[in-house]
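Example for tutorial group B:
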């Protein structure tokens, strides 16, 4: 399992998620070598995304996440406004082309929202371990799938808010197919437990300059924060699904496609400032990508392996 680790920078905690945890370390952003390809498989083919909702979520909250997943594969005709979530996701294609080298065509990834499983009775209680997360993840498809466990604001998970905002990993499938395994992600709703760590810039950070928080584009600090973390973990899952893809640093706590660019959402970003963003004239919500069903989202910058820079949408 690869948790999201907090990167504590010189003056502020810039929060963003990776395939692993966010680690507490004092470093300035982007002071690292290029992400190294470790010759392992990237997530490829037609992959279903299954959402496992653990705890109480309102239908409107579930719609925010499902619309984000749907937005990843929306064509320009369905999401005419730019920059779009689908355009943001296309940065991950560069990893596939580099990994393929001279091979043509290079592998590709197609993500499709499939099933949504509700566990509103807290079947494993309100205090979960990593083992519990894997057990919940196994409720989804176990072949050609990414199973996303989303825990509600009243559910505690080991390390949540102290060392991580979410995590991703892989587990063996019980499909009867030899060597089958599936990828999984866990993200928690930090609204009441640790919004300063896991919902910045929609909440004041725990450390550093206390600039006014931005308005969440979907008017839900907890869920808009979950979108940021889920986006980061999805990018890590695609490019480093089994711990031997693209990453830098220790294998159990790597910097990945999004976590290599912590706290960067727009051009001009610096510790404590998310960057120059778009602002909804009606709601005042800050965002950098348009999505399905008229949605607006704030998404993390992705490391561009062809330029060795953090690629922003705006």
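The residue assignment follows.
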């Amino acid at each position: 399992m690869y948790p999201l680790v907090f990167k504590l920078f010189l003056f502020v905690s810039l929060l963003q998620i990776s395939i692993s945890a966010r680690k507490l370390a004092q470093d300035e952003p982007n002071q690292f070598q290029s992400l190294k390809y470790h010759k392992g498989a990237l997530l490829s083919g037609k992959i279903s995304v299954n959402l496992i909702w653990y705890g109480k979520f309102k239908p409107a909250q579930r719609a925010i996440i499902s619309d984000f997943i749907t937005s990843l594969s929306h064509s320009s005709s369905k999401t005419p406004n730019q920059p779009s979530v689908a355009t943001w996701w296309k940065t991950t294609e560069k990893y596939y082309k580099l990994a393929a080298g001279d091979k043509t065509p290079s592998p590709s990834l197609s993500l499709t929202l499939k099933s949504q499983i509700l566990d509103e009775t807290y079947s494993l209680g309100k205090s979960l371990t990593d083992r519990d997360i894997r057990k919940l993840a196994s409720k989804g498809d176990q072949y050609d799938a990414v199973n996303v466990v989303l825990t509600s604001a009243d559910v505690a998970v080991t390390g949540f808010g102290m060392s991580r905002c979410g995590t991703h990993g892989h587990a063996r499938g019980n499909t009867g197919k030899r060597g089958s395994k599936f990828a999984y992600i866990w993200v928690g709703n930090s609204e009441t437990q640790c919004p300063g760590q896991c919902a910045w810039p929609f909440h004041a950070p725990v450390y550093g300059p206390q600039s006014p928080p931005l308005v969440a584009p979907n008017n839900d600090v907890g869920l808009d924060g979950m979108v940021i973390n889920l986006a980061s973990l999805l990018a890590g899952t695609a490019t480093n699904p089994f711990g031997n893809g693209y990453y830098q640093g220790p294998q159990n706590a790597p910097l990945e496609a999004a976590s290599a660019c912590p706290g960067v959402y727009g051009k001009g970003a610096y510790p404590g400032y998310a960057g120059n963003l778009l602002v909804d004239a009606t709601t005042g919500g800050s965002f950098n990508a348009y999505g399905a069903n008229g949605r607006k989202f704030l998404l993390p910058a992705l490391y561009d392996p062809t330029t060795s820079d953090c690629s922003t949408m705006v």
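Confidence is low (pLDDT under 50) at residues 5-32. Compare this with the pattern of hydrophobic and polar residues in the output above.
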